[in-house]
Amino acid sequence: MQVDTTSKSPSQGILRSALDAILIPFLAILTAVILGGIIIAVVRGNPFLAYYGLIQGSFGSAKALSETAVWATPYIFAGLAVALAFKGGLFNIGAEGQLALGAVFSALIGYALPEWLGRDIPLIIHLPLTIIIGMAAGAFWAAIVGFLKAYTGGHEVINTIMMNYIALNTISYLLNGPMKDRDPNNVIARTPLIADSARMPAIFEGFRIHWGFVLALLIALLVWWILNKTTLGFEIRTVGSNPDAAKYAGINVKRTIIITMTLSGMLAGMAGALEVTGLNFRHELGFSIGYGFDAIAIALLGKSHPLGVVLASILFAAMRNGATRMQFLTQLPVDLISVLQALILLFVAADAIIRYIYRIKSKGERVVLTRGWGG
Amino acid sequence: MKKLYTLLAVLLVAAMLLPACAPAEADCSSEDVFCVGLVTDVGKINDKSFNQSAWEGVQRAEKELGAKVQYIETADSKDYDKNIATFADENYDVIVTVGFGMGEATVKAAGLYPNVKFIGVDQFQAAETPGVVGLNFPEDNAGFLVGALASMMSESHKIGAVCGTDAVPPVWRFGEGYKAGAAYADGMMGSTTEVFVVYHSDVGFDKTFTDPEWGAATAKSMMDQGADAIFGCGGITGNGAITAAAQAGKYAIGVDTDQYLTLPEAAPRMLSSAMKLITPGVFDLIKLAKEGNFPVGNYFGAAGYAPFHDLDSEVPAEVKAEMEKINAGLLDGSIKTNVPPVKPE
User: Fold this and answer.
1) Would you place residue B124 in the very low, low, confident or very high pLDDT band (cuts 50, 70, 90)?
2) Residue A365's pLDDT is what?
């Protein structure tokens, strides 16, 4: 089969550029899967059975699909949060804290608002409000970092890490203290259940997949539209690729940095809010551990493109979800999934390895994650 | 590029052949096949603690009852329901869920899968749910055993216990059992032992089991008053006390499982541990399930004390003999701790 590389017809051009964009991640995944299979064989497992279990457990039944979507939902939001910041030249390591903060504030509005008002609230008001407050909490937390970056030059990597600690410890205090479930039998650090009026209706009865997944796909589309079709998106991308040129072109760089961080935090907060309103109906200490950090990996794998983020999220979700079935069939430790994920990321990040193995010429285009210190 | 496409084609074929590699599984829905699955709490199967002990009970069922056994390690509490369902959907007969944290998920699953029998390790059932039995342990007996041991081994005739809050009934039973055990040994030996038992009830639930500094400081103050054996009962707080006692060269006594294995820094001075015998408890319940006599509500397993390990040569033969006698007495009911289930108001 010979691929015609001289064709210049526009539709084929788009197809080719799309193919090029997913080629490296795809080959990275493929290489990781093969290498992972070798590792499984070395520890005396059956790689074919393991992968069969992984696929069956993530896509093999209605229930499996539903659970994969459940896992993918926060990944998509948090992945978009990190990807959007990447586009703006910012490295948001703080998604973890923003997400948890969003979850806590959603839960608070979810269970406490009817008590404060002393009456029931219709779902049409309560549910959106609950989600919006969660988004606002994440947005606020990230906006502080954006502000510090814009006006003091404080690097967002350091500040988001710091803000993570503040957020997570504050949440630990809240869940153990003022916001703790008052049920006398409860010894777990968690909030009470949120009111029915703050819960997202189920899509299919008996399955845990919720409207948050559909919302995630819509938001991914929205983020793509904002980035590529609006002035704001243009400003974000320009500041991301070259702030000096952006400034020269008359873009308010400080404002754009703050907006980028705010939007990023808003997406992360939404991830948390939807976990509360769509899935758990409360926030529990430790329920969201690691999502914000997985999100960085997802944004990298998805090349910071919204569609890429969705695909990468589904891949990560499938691996996390299918791991149970894999373990059931093979009794291999679930940690193998982390090894697989790490291998995929290694090959995506160090794409020179992939290009060398598969003899692919570099297009000279590089993913810019964040522009170094003091930028 | 051409090579690449060939490779992809080969892989595609391989992927299509994948399902063919799945082995023929024993069918758990069949009457003749008895299947037991275990779901760990967030943690590993070889944690040298609850998960591992429970799994050893399941493995014993494999050997002695011919059960088909399998485990799933939980990586994220979000997966509790799914991990239990993985076994239930395969028509497993018995599912063991380990740890207090899985209690709610276990009760919920029992409603969805009425044909499955659930064993909840350390899950006290406040209300009965058909198909669920909580495996609990007489902590007072365990405390009694190590209290008697500490009393017999103490040269200063002063011993201590550093525990979590007495608002948690099992913790209170450990501490009161310890006192009762020391008094029993005194009665036998004609000695008078002073027993210090301190509960960390001055702080909230978030802190009471996770305060090793307080545990160590409390143990030190007991040792300053002459105590030469310290029982740590209460999670990481207790571990702090155990480690402090071991570092001071006194006798350290662990709790729940054989902590000689889990607290290497205290191992050289670890006299014993007040143990919940999870392995036989799990096995007995599985056996009852197989025989069709599965109980409901709460089932009480046995308590015991861990081997003396490194200090075996320091423990006199008569003490060893006494300990075996006390243990037998507690098991057959001829010795009673007289500790009520909960702290009287």
Assistant:
1) confident
2) 53
Chain A interface residues (partner B, CB cutoff 8 A): 1-3, 30, 46, 48-49, 51-52, 55, 63, 67, 70-71, 172, 176-177, 185, 187-189, 208, 279-280, 284, 286-287, 289, 320-321, 323-325, 327-329, 331, 333-334, 358-359
Per the structure, the count of domains in chain B is: 2
Residue B182 lies in domain: 139-275+308-332
DSSP SS3 for A97: helix
CA angle A315, A319, A323 (to 5 degrees): 165
Do B48 and B167 belong to one domain?
no
The average pLDDT across B42-61 equals 88
Lowest-confidence pick of A85-94, A363-372, B268-277, B329-338: A363-372
* Res A7 pLDDT > 60: no
Residues B132 and B202 in one domain: no
Same-domain status, B113 and B209: no
CA dist list (Å): A180 to A96, A184, A289, B233: 21, 11, 19, 25
Residues B128 and B179 in one domain: no
Subunit contact A187:B205, Cβ cutoff 8 A: yes
Beta carbons of A287 and B77 less than 8 Å apart: yes
- Tell whether B1 is covered by a domain: no
Residue-level pLDDT at B208: 80
Whether residues A328 and B87 touch (CB distance < 8 A) is answered with yes
Residue B18 lies in a domain: no
Rounded to the nearest integer, the mean pLDDT of chain B is: 89
* Contacts of residue A100, Cβ cutoff 8 Å, sequence gap at least 6: A167, A168, A171, A272, A283, A288, A292
State pLDDT tens for residues A204-263. Answer: 988 999 999 999 999 999 999 999 999 999 999 999 999 999 999 999 999 999 999 999
Asked if A1 lies within 8 A of B5 by C-beta distance, the reply is: yes
Residues B188 and B97 occupy one common structural domain:
no
- Return the structure tokens found at B339: 């500790």
Nearest Cα to Cα of residue B129 among B298, B290, B283, B335:
B298
ipTM reported for the complex surpasses 0.85: no
DSSP code per residue over B136-183: E--HHHHHHHHHHHHHHH-SSSEEEEEES-TTSHHHHHHHHHHHHHHH
Which residue is listed with tokens 């591992």?
Answer: B52
